[in-house]
User: Fold these one by one.
Assistant:
Number 1:
Amino acid sequence: MKLLLFLFTLFFGVSCFAQKVYSVEYENQADAKVYVVNYENQADLKVYKVKYSNQAINNIGKWFFTTYRNQASKTLFFVDYENQADFKIYFVEYENQAGWRNKSKQHFMF
């Protein structure tokens, strides 16, 4: 029983902070609204797209885009205008560049 509880806690704890995301079609389906900026210094979060879901751990800007909504820990809606967004992101080329620039917006991805 204790082992089962431990495994459940371990699985649930990891999945809560995993950055597996799914892009939804409608704003009201999303956990957060994001806007993609053109320059790194405009972003609240620098995002690196990882190839495998097990690489997308914690809230550090490494995202894995899932194929299905039920596989994601967060659903996102990409807005057309900066003022509609909860936070702004910039996609980086290298994994070590990922991370929060504005930590006050970090709660949107928990």
Note: The chain has one domain: 2-109.
Number 2:
Amino acid sequence: MKALQYKEIGQAPVVVDLPVPEPGPGQVLLKVTAAGVCHSDEYIMSLPEDQFPGGLPLTLGHEGAGVVHQLGEGVEHLSVGDAVMVYGPWGCGRCHNCAQGKENYCTNAAAEGIRPPGLGAPGAIAEYMLVDDPRHLVPMGDLDPVANVSLSDAGLTPYHAVKQSLPKLHAGSYAVAIGAGGLGHVGIQLLRELSGATVIALDVTEEKLDFAREVGAHHAVLSDEHAVEAVMELTGGLGANAVFDFVGAPPTAKTAAAVAAIEADVTIVGIGGGYSEVGYGTIAYDAAVRSPYWGSRGELVEVLEMARRGQLSVEVETFSLDDAPKAYERLHEGSLRGRAVIVPNGD
């Protein structure tokens, strides 16, 4: 089978030929129908060798969807041909958090060397993918895998972030979404669908701001040296009740803290190396800063239900598996509108 692998530290990923894996007891082999490309992949590939999780080569892709191709011994309640989405943040399945479906916060994963597919374990940008346990699969039904595979991260991650702040986002409140890219354009939709807040989007180009308005932002502001002043003017000088930094770079994290209102939530979702200082005089009184990670399995089910109802969609651009390296080039240069999706089997 063909797969996209990161083979050498600091080098671009390449398409390789590998044997089709055989599922062992309790495992499931998928024929991959779609796989998403994410900035988290870039982050992993930017790490030096002493910080790299797991070994090389690594098959990329932590957003995956497919049809069940083969079942390992003992697997029940799944059939060959079932359409499924992969729940990416794999955990031990035994700890208190895993028992609640929150494998994204598994307390044993690090110690036991359990890593997500594409971020340590072999991922979905391949013709076939081995899934370690059927609990990491969510039924897709008739949802289009190409249109919806990115919801397994680009939908689940902002959903988990936004959901925690909904009590503060009543009618008359303000929410700021920094970044209208792969995560942010879904986050804006979620804020419109789930809250009563006025949504203010920030990004660095007029094209991205137009995109933010298309997906539901009430206001769109250039993320420059005047951004804080513009947000404060839009909020009557009070700031935003919840701020979601979908970029997470040092400049955006600074902006996020600066536009937060008293008792606001500041949530740094992106992994661009930014952080927020918390202390007297550095942020509004009683503001809370969060740095969430992915979401629970139950929340993924909820996200897919929103997609099924037409409440949520992802802007996608498709690539063949042979062209997957080009997708990462486009991701790096920032020229993607929304999310890149690899279609490994061309179906």
Note: The first helix runs from residue 39 to 45.
Number 3:
Amino acid sequence: MKIYRIYLKNNNIKINKKIVINNIKQVHYLNKVVRIKHNDLIEIFNNSKYVYHAKIINLKKNNIHMKIIKIIETKKESFLQLHLGQVISKKQNMDFTIQKSVELGVKTITPLISEKCYKKYKNDVYEKKITRWKKIAESACCQCQRNILPKINNITELKKWCIEQTKSLKIFFNPYSSISIKKLPKKHIKNIRLLIGSEHGFSSIEIELLKKNKFYDILLGPRILRTETASITAISILQFKYGDI
């Protein structure tokens, strides 16, 4: 029997504790979408290394009561600390990138504004987008059974992001580079900062700045990939080379 998962921002969960779910969207999902019943089990994750099995004890229109009956320690997180810097792309493409990168184990995502960014918005629009992307990341964690929500940073200027001090291996992809991804260091790497540009790539000034700040200038194959394809391809390769795939 499939056990449905939900995220709860609650650090005080223990055996036999009774919990009330009153989030409108979660209540609707459990009541109307998956149609849970009395005594059904729900799996809860709360940004820790544990998951919690809870039995439904009371169903109401606006809230759901459940009781914790089991605590399980899990190991779903990749040991590769992968930070994705993604230049903002079109809505559906950006949503796809957020979703799939979470499924592939990315720990941090920073949406970026570059000189050739798809579109620039006002700050209040950006705030709404961050909220949306965090919800997408939460849903992706529910689907792929990750228990730790990846961090979605505030939208940042590319120039500011690339000069941040870090001990990570830093990579960006350039279709005009002569260096294959196979040429990356073979030694064990724990931290990677991966930069993916927009559909229009990077300006010459940005490329010089990236190289100056010790980003590896890498060619991701002979074909020009869409930005969302490049993100998923690069993350998959890096997880295979240094992570848990």
Note: Residues 81-242 form a domain with the Alpha/beta knot fold (CATH 3.40.1280.10).
